[in-house]
Amino acid sequence: MAILSVSPEIADLTAATIRRLGHEPVAAVAPRRKKPVPGFPSLDAVGELKETAVVVAPDKESVESILKSLDPDVVVTWAFPWRIPPEALAVPRLGAINYHPSLLPRHRGPNPLAWTIRSGDSDYGLTWHRMEAEFDSGAILAQRSTPVLLEDSHAEVLPRILSLGLRMLRGVFEKVLEEERGEPQSKEGVTEAPPFGVDYATIDWSRPARAVHDQVRAWSFTPGTGSAEGPFGDLNGRRVKVKRTTLTEPGPDGIRVDCGDGPLWVIESEPVA
After folding, report:
1. Which residues contact 225 (CB under 8 A, 6 or more apart)?
2. 161 and 64 in one domain?
3. Which pLDDT score is estimated for 102?
């Protein structure tokens, strides 16, 4: 099996899970990133894993030749930012599978967790699906969900869905090795999860407190998705980037803001130059 991922942590944990389930990861393929994402290490920059070889792809056109040289039975992609060409998807004998953090066909695209919050969904979704040329459209092999909590942010959610995704792999591999195609995605309920733009980047404090809180939380999931910068608001006469809020009074560390229907507290922000 070959792993395609930009994340050292995800690639390492996926490789360990593959071994634990009795299979062999031949290598992890990392995309060459043009610009690093602050706070998120990139596998191409790290260049190595504990027990798994790392191959850096300079561009998406090189993925096919790299996979041909590795000759994997299965390709597993997780947090891989490029659309993989059909010729590369055709290389593995048993196909390519992908982890996507939504309940497909809802929130197809690069920014699903942020749109989960923005859309007011009750649950985060997790889907393992077969890969096709069209983004996030392949047959579903497994799905799980976990509740959206009022105060959670990426720091709490990402480890939770990472653990769930790894636990799902046993059943997913069984289906793949038995050459099960999976369930075709419904044509109903399809939504897109594109990068956030400037239309959602400014905070309007006159909106309900929960809406502002969710806007701030949604932006915490956008690094690496191609989104614009945000969200920004005026706070005590200064323009700031708001990074975390709470609906529960946090004590002296929070700045109270009266929204359209009640208070909200800003607990982390940074000035805009």
Report:
1. 110, 111, 114, 195, 196
2. yes
3. 98
- The domain in which residue 253 lies consists of 198-271
Domain shared by 148 and 33, yes or no: yes
Q: In 62-132, at which residue ranges do the beta strands (DSSP E only) sit?
A: 75-78, 96-100, 123-130
Q: For residue 133, what pLDDT is reported?
A: 86
Q: Give residue-wise pLDDT tens across range 59-109.
A: 999 999 999 999 999 999 999 999 999 999 999 999 999 999 999 999 999
- What is the structure's pLDDT at 40? 84
Phi first, then psi: give them for residue 31, nearest 5 degrees. Answer: -75, 140
Count of domains observed in the chain = 2
Contact between 206 and 260 (Cβ < 8 Å): yes
Tens of pLDDT, residues 197-232: 999 999 999 999 999 999 999 999 999 899 999 999
Q: Residue 34 sits in a domain of what CATH number?
A: 3.40.50.170
The answer to the question of residue 242 being in a domain is yes
- 169-to-13, 29, 200 alpha-carbon distances in Å: 12, 19, 35
Residue 2, sorted as left (phi over 0), alpha (psi -120 to 50) or beta, turns out to be: beta
Question: For the chain, what percent of residues have pLDDT higher than 90?
Answer: 90
In single-letter form, the type of residue at position 65 comes to S
Residues 241 and 156 in one domain: no
pLDDT at 157: 95
